[in-house]
Amino acid sequence: MRLLLGGGRGGRMLCLWLMLLGFALLTLALLEIFNRDRDESREKPGPPRRRRPPHQTPSSPDLLEVIVDSQDPAIEFAADIAPLKSLQEDQLLYVPSKQEALKKGGYRVLLLGAKRDARATAPPTHGGMEEALRLQMEVLEKDLELSAAAHKDGFNEVVSERIPMHRRLPEARHPECFKQQYESLPSASVIICFHNEAWSTLLRTAHSVLDTAPEQYLQEVLLVDDLSEHGHLKRVLSEYVSQLDGVRLIRSTKRLGVAGCRAVGAARAAGEVLVFMDSHCECQRGWLEPLLQRVAQDRTRAVSPILDVIDGQTFQYNATQWPVRGVFDWRLDFRWDSDPSHQDKDPSSAVQAVRSPALGGEVLAINRHFFQRVGAYDQGMLLWGEEQIELSIRVWSCGGSMEVVPCSRVAHLVRRHHQPYSFPDQEVRQRNKIRIADTWMNEYRKIFYRRDTLAYFIRQSENPDIADRLRLKRSLACKDFHWYLKTVYPQLYIPEDRPALSGELYNVGASSCANYPHRQELQGGAMNTAPCSGTGSQHCELNSEFEVRWGPTGASCFDTRGERVVLSPCPTNRSTTSRLQWRFMKMSGQLIHQRSQLCLEAVMEEELPQVSPRGIGGNAGGLFLRPCSHHPRQRWHFDQLVAPRDA
Predict the structure, then answer these.
(1) Rounded (10°) CA dihedral 640, 645, 646, 647
(2) Residue 265 above 90 pLDDT?
(3) What's the rounded Cα separation, in Å, for the pair 280 and 204?
(4) Has domain 428-488 been given CATH number 1.10.600.10?
(5) What is the mean pLDDT of the chain?
(6) For residue 232, what is the DSSP state?
(7) What is the DSSP letter of 526?
(8) End-to-end CA distance of the chain
(9) What is the architecture, at CATH level 2, of domain 502-639?
(10) Which of 444, 442, 537 is nearest to 494 (CA)?
(11) Span 253-270, mean pLDDT?
């Protein structure tokens, strides 16, 4: 020290520099304190946070919501949280807790009402919060690169980003709906599961619920993250959700799929009614109250709104025409279908709920206790696909019912591809279907296996573990599938599938099978030939009514328009006409049209005239009626890919 201080001019210069450095550090510290105090004095209160319903216990400001990334160390559950009976503890990563209940580690803690990162300390004004968090997304290395990946999620993300977070959809309800009165409704928890969802569609869904659901009925919104990988769904989303009152974020450490993810949300929900909603929806005004009313009137009901359509490319809103209902076919594929038996004959019918054989998974409301009693979602279902069909059959068979409520409307984004999950292989959906068939369809599962041969061969090599679902079925005294078909879904045609008269209709001369192009409407289009798929998708049958029924529902019949063979709706009263009747000659392989006495022939494109009548398929070859001959393209036989005794 003496050498440094007293060692001449060099020592004095070093001392001077040390003093200047200390003075600079002191000045910076004072400026930081001064600026912080000045910023706090200038802070203006943001918009009032969303009020909680009167029956909801308010959270104390010092409570924490701990959001733990899947890569972070294991956490210690707070003592006041009971583990879920239906899930392993390591499958759940939502912990409301006190600071002292946490392990010290690398996970993130969001302090509600406390200071956060310097880039997130601005008061949460509506537009300011969104803009600040968008900037933070870039800081967190989440560049959306929208121009290069506009359609990576099956929709135009560029258009979605340009649409306001809070947009008001055109009114589509029937005028009679505005006369309905709703009082003393139960509380609702809206559960939104997501996996790698786009930022704009996910947050628009959450804000749409908050903007349209009455506060006195909306208990909470639960966002359940099924192990998303995208950066904007990590800390950025946690910061954003922490600013929204009544919204909680739950993260899973494992990929659970739709069924498991929704089970996690249901286990943590506090509302009397669970409302499961996809992560790319927009709600109409007044959507929640009609659903709650129907469930309040009968706690064993599961109900759905009318699902309007948001175009995936333009994000234009399109209202769905009422009436509709949910149905499925013998391949266990779900679809929304118009219900011609329920037409608007009087104004009151416009507000009457319609019983539905099945409901989709886009939006579903169900009493929380009934949902758990009937077995919740089957967590044996893998990732995504057909879980809504399994739940529909189970609810109906085990004492409940399902309805579509016309005064409730929610718009759903239609993607170019419908899979919200990337499958590890293409057999996931088949395994889910196998689980449904073996659990619920009894002897009718043979019909399914003949129409989905991939599922059949998977089933031949492995058995699903359905012991727990069979025990549940027995304990609830659920009715069998014959009862379901007779009572709930009598419109579904039950095939006969007679040997040598059902399967793929193979043409000897063309070395191909009768086919109906997927790009055409379900009915009304022209038949043609195509390479035999071997999957069961080209299944048809000649039944005892002499109808050639096509497709997995069996609702379409071979018909004629002039000389061309087309598909038409089959009669529902079992009184078919000669126009739809055919006779199969096993010796010659000819399929003869009863009315015209002409034979079915596969005609090649080059054999057709250059100009064909408008509306019958143009010049693209197909199936025609021709005078009967020994031509090899008039020889047919049915290839049954799965023998009845084997199914």
Answers:
(1) 80
(2) yes
(3) 8
(4) no
(5) 78
(6) G
(7) B
(8) 95
(9) Trefoil (2.80)
(10) 444
(11) 91
Q: Predicted confidence band at 645 (pLDDT cuts at 50, 70, 90)?
A: low
pLDDT above 90 covers what percent of the chain?
55
Measured distance CA(480)–CA(486) in Å, rounded: 10
Q: How far apart are CA 335 and CA 414, in angstroms?
A: 13
Tokens representing 282 are 């927009």
Q: Rounded to whole angstroms, how far apart are CA atoms 441 and 443?
A: 6
Whether the bond into 323 is cis, omega within 30 of 0: yes
Q: From the DSSP assignment, how many helices (H) and strands (E) are in the chain?
A: 15, 27
- Closest to 453 measured CA to CA, from 439, 438, 435, 434: 434
Closest listed residue to residue 551, CA positions, set 616, 505, 600, 615: 505
Determine how β-strand 354-355 pairs with β-strand 401-414: antiparallel
* Buried b or exposed e, range 348-358, using 16+ CB within 10 angstroms: ebbbebbebbb
d(CA 466, CA 342): 37
Tens digits of residue pLDDT in 95-148: 333 333 323 232 233 333 333 333 333 334 445 555 545 544 453 444 444 434
Residues 6+ apart with CB under 8 A from 28: none
Torsion of CA 132, 133, 135, 136, to 10 degrees: 120
Q: Are β-strands 247-251 and 301-311 bridged in parallel, bridged antiparallel, or unpaired?
A: unpaired
| Gap between the Cα atoms of 614 and 612, Å rounded | 6
> Per-domain residue ranges for the chain?
186-414, 428-488, 502-639
| pLDDT (average), residues 191-207 | 95
* CATH 3.30.365.10 fits domain 186-414: no
Residues 534 and 536: their CA atoms lie apart, in Å, by 6
Start-end of H helices in 171-297: 199-212, 235-242, 257-268, 288-297
For residue 305, what are the β-bridge partners? 405
602 strand-pairing partners: 623
Confidence of residue 273 (pLDDT cuts 50, 70, 90): very high
Tokens (6 digits) for 110: 């969001």
Q: What pLDDT digit, counting tens, does each position of 345-393 carry?
A: 566 778 899 999 999 989 999 999 999 999 999 888 887 778 999 999 9
The whole-angstrom separation of Cα 632 and Cα 134 is: 67
Count of Cβ atoms closer than 10 Å to residue 468 Cβ: 13
Give the integer Cα–Cα distance in Å for 140 and 231.
7
In this structure, the strands spanning 188-194 and 273-277 are parallel
Q: Are the CB atoms for 395 and 282 separated by under 8 Å?
A: no
